[in-house]
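Handoff note, outgoing to incoming analyst
You'll be picking up this chain. Sequence as last confirmed:
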Amino acid sequence: MENLLNVIKKSCVLINNPEKIDETKMSWKGSFVSCCTFFHLEATNDKKLQDQNILCGNIVHDIWNIGTIIHHLVWLQKKAIKNELPKDMWMFYAGINIEHFHIELRSIMDYSAEMIANASNKKGQIPTSFRKLTKWISENPGNRKRVGEDLASVVESIGWFPDFRGVRDALIHKGAFTLVFGGPKDGILFQIYKDSINKLVSHDVLMANDNVAYFDKYAALYISHLFVFLENLADVLKKRYEIKSHDRDSRITSPGFYTLLDWMLKLSAAVTASTS
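Most recent structure output, in case you need it:
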């Protein structure tokens, strides 16, 4: 739990603004965003950086989409509380947003795998699927040398990925489905079922009861892990590409980040309470 608290704390620092009150000024910043700025500015002069620039753009776009999903969920929730949206449609609309959240975050991981492959010691020999990359690195020491010890360590640091990948794969490939429970005033309560019995979300700190979880905590958990992973990846990329200076003021804005920061702080409080 202590490690999770550190992850959440680091992520909260990455999403902030000086005023902390105007949601339109909330932004995502940090080493990864700065690296993306570097690739964007230098790609026109160095063709070797063009692929990295495109992949950075894809990741930024997907994170912006995640911010939009979060903003849309809260907007729908407010509409439903005011009875401006039928209760059953609130449940269906929220469920679709939750499923799309998994698609966006999973795509980011594959774009990250491509960035790792491009920066590796043996470009062209490295898997560009994150699932295949994690398995490939563990198969023999020679593969670690091909990708590079620094990049291999970043890949191995994300113990959260297999569980998340399993949920996403079940949704996309194995007929799993999302159900939203209760009314909008109860929060965004959900569960993902592989069939009518087996529940896929069961992390104690996320649960409202034995059967359903809070999506705000669930999303905050995985986005916090994602942001820390991207920061660790950026730290390695800066060394490999000898990025000695970068724009520390680079940032990506999204109205959804205001809510995301609130969700992260609530998750932090829940984790702290569970350990006291």
